[in-house]
Amino acid sequence: MTGDTSIESLKGIGEKTAGLFHKLNIYTIRDLVQAYPRDYDVFEEISPISAIRSGERVIIKGKLVTSVSEKITRRIKLYEFSVADATGMVRVQFFNTPYIKNQLKKGMVVLLRGKCELRRDMMFLEHPIILSGTEYEEQKEVLQPIYGLTAKLSNKVFKKAVKQALAELEIPEYLPDWILEKYHFRKLDEAIHHIHFPENAEELQNSRHRLVFDEFFLFLLCLHQIKHNEIERPNQFQMIETADTARLIEALPYRLTEDQMKVYRDLQDDLCGQNMMNRLVQGDVGSGKTILATLALVTTAANGYQGALMAPTEVLAKQHFDGISKLAKEYHLPLKTALLTGSMTAKQKKEVYERIEKGQVNCIIGTHALFQEKVTYQKLALVITDEQHRFGVLQREALAAKGYNPHVCVMSATPIPRTLSMILYGNFHVSAIRHLPEKRLVIKNSVVDISFREKAYQFIYKHLKEGEQAFIICPMIESSEDSNLESVMEYAKKCREIFPEEVRIGVLHGQLKSTEKNQIMEQFALGNIHLLISTTVVEVGVNVPNATVMMIENADRFGLAQLHQLRGRVGRGEKQSYCIFINTSKKDLAKKRLKVLQDSNDGFFIAEQDLKLRGPGDFFGVRQSGEMLFDLADILSDAEELTLADEISKEILEIENWQDLPEYKALALRTQQEYGKFIDFPTI
Question: Which residues contact 457 (CB under 8 A, 6 or more apart)?
């Protein structure tokens, strides 16, 4: 069995199950073993009922002292009973599980695992898992992997497939011996085995350290090789400034900030200067990067060229398209716009392809569909990527491989500390927008514990009654099989009980199809959904000025940078906005970190503090920054590995013709496999 073998070769994975893995972009054995767990689960000790605390996940053992009652309310069937031990009693609730009535009878002794919540002076255990004694003993004190799943694919099936693949797959080492020995890295096969099935936290940390290093190292080896080969390229599309941009700036209903004007000048100087643009524009959430992109596209169109704006999601692409088209019409700009996304029909795409090739459009806005093989540009001179991915950094090389050499501008909404920015964007000229536009009210922040949750619901409802909209971010990381999906859906059911019927509630999570996500976000943007309950997929979302309140559950599980990104979904209109962070941790470090968010709305300051306030074991939480989207590594949490990878990759590139030397052959081949479309080592 090799890494390229299809997952259908695994026992128990037929066409139907393989189709579920395909939804997660897992087609081969390599894909499967590189789909690392997103979290780990450890069974707690059995807790006396009197000792359980609200917000904690616990395991209790007790006797059913009542029969299971059934109650039907607004589309939800609620099953409830009481369990007691020698120390106290707790109410247990299940939702939409009719089999519970037959499975559990009064007088039975049960082992239950779930989250507790104090309501109306009574402790409730909500939708727990029922464990057998054997199951508990086997899994106690063992780290169990939890994978990112899709509907109908269970964690059990995923885990079994990984176990089988690892038993049969030979994983070759590609790091030279001197790196392994000098930095005490684990062998690659050991690291991959133990990231999936660690025996303890130390083993997991050592394995993760190696794999995180590898992700950064291969990326930086490619990036530094490009920098090594690169020289300033003469401007093939030298432009002249036109009156259209000045006219637009003058006519806008708001004044551009000093920072925006400086970035505007940088972009114009690049387009009209001697060398091709390769610029990174760093701007905080809501800092006004889109208008700057529009101005650069106007200059490009006025000079007779085509420009493209690539967004990370279809919803955002559509919003950019609508906004820029409206400006073009209102201010008589020389922009002929077109939208190109993956979900368009073949006929619609074909029409757009023809218009692009004939030069009938000069401002093309879309997703990755902009650079598929069927798209041929007539005069592509500028590409702007609003792209949260490591390949955004390599955009110029990706375009060059398709025969295009335009000006390149990458826009980033994640402020990155300068030390890390120099590593990742060393071949870019960097511009920054540090201040928000005028009239933008500062978001009011509040960090509270779970006892404040009911007041928070009342606060949200007050603003919904005033015609505003709200988000509740609900990561709710649990150990149950369809964890993320199930918990968000259960949370939504609870909210439908809490809020009156006239409140229209939408639910958004990663396991929905792209078309379903787009539809929900569009309905929210149109105001047809009042309250959106979502996982972090909303982090890169649309601009909804009417959304004024966000409540983030389990805020202590996130990095500050991601919390700041999420918070940026509100505060985009002229009304006062609010963000409520629910802290479920009692640790001082969690309180200290969340206080940074409570006291500041400056993304650059928050990113620096995020780096300083990292605690050990932070990788058990949710991914911090969406900026690079590595499989495992995170540029903020793993700054130490990033810096080390930077040093070693530069050291290797100082060796003349390193890729020809026997000890580096495997490394050169692995780099080519990962980043071959951006860089070619001709000797391989």
Answer: 495, 498, 499
Q: What is the rounded distance in angstroms from the CA atom of residue 675 to the CA atom of residue 391?
A: 9
Q: Which residues contact 637 (CB under 8 A, 6 or more apart)?
A: 559, 614, 618, 619, 624
Per DSSP, 50 falls in state: G
Element (H, E) at 579: strand 578-583
Q: What is the DSSP letter of 43?
A: B
Helix H or strand E encompassing 110: strand 109-119
On whether the CB atoms of residues 302 and 242 are closer than 8 A, the answer is yes
| Beta-sheet strands, E only, within 475-538 | 505-508, 531-534
DSSP bridge pairs for 39: 146
Segment 368-381, tens digit of pLDDT: 888 877 899 999 99
For 295, 362, 375, 505, the CA distances from 322, given in Å and listed in that order, are 15, 15, 22, 26
What is the pLDDT, as a whole number, of residue 230? 67
DSSP β-ladder status, 444-449 and 306-310: unpaired
Task: Let me know: does 144 contact 40? Beta carbons within 8 Å.
Answer: yes
Equal CATH topology for 274-433 and 444-622: yes
Burial class (CB in 10 A: 0-12, 13-18, 19+), 174: middle
| Cβ within 8 Å of residue 239, ≥6 positions away | 271, 272, 299, 300, 303, 305, 381
Per DSSP, 275 falls in state B
Pick one of 3.40.1000.70, 3.40.605.10, 3.90.420.10, 3.40.50.300 as the CATH number of 444-622.
3.40.50.300
Is the domain spanning 49-139 CATH 2.40.50.140? The answer is yes
Domain residue extents for the chain: 49-139, 274-433, 444-622
User: 153, 639 in Cβ contact below 8 A?
Assistant: no
Distance of CA 113 to the CA centre of its chain: 29
Answer yes or no: are the C-beta atoms of 594 and 565 closer than 8 Å. no
CA 578 to centroid of chain Cα atoms: 22
List the Cα angle 287/288/293 in 5-degree steps.
135
**Domain 274-433, what fold?**
Rossmann fold (3.40.50)
The 10s digit of each residue's pLDDT in 237-280 is 999 999 999 999 999 988 999 999 999 999 999 999 999 998 98
Q: How far is CA 66 from the centre of its chain?
A: 44
Residue with tokens 């990292």: 614
> Residue 497 has which token pair?
């009980």
DSSP annotation of 445: E
pLDDT digits 0-9 by tens, 149-169 = 887 899 989 999 999 999 999
pLDDT confidence of residue 540: 60
| Count of C-beta atoms within a 10 Å radius of residue 404 | 17
* Whole-number Å distance between alpha carbons of 43 and 143: 8
Helix segments in 394-482, DSSP class H:
395-401, 418-424, 453-465
Torsion over CA of 625, 628, 629 and 633, rounded to 10 degrees? -80
Q: H or E stretch including 673? A: helix 665-675
Q: 3-class SS at 636?
A: coil
Burial class (CB in 10 A: 0-12, 13-18, 19+), 25: exposed
Rounded distance between C-alpha atoms, residue 444 and residue 581, angstroms: 11
Per-residue confidence (pLDDT) for residue 643, from 0 to 100: 93
Q: How far apart are CA 24 and CA 16, in angstroms?
A: 14
- Distance (Å, whole) CA 204 – CA 618: 13
Could you give the residue ranges of the DSSP H alpha helices within 529-662? 560-567, 588-599, 603-612, 639-653
In sequence order, what are the residues at sequence separation of 6 or more whose Cβ sits closer than 8 angstroms to the Cβ of residue 95? 76, 77, 78, 79, 127, 490, 493
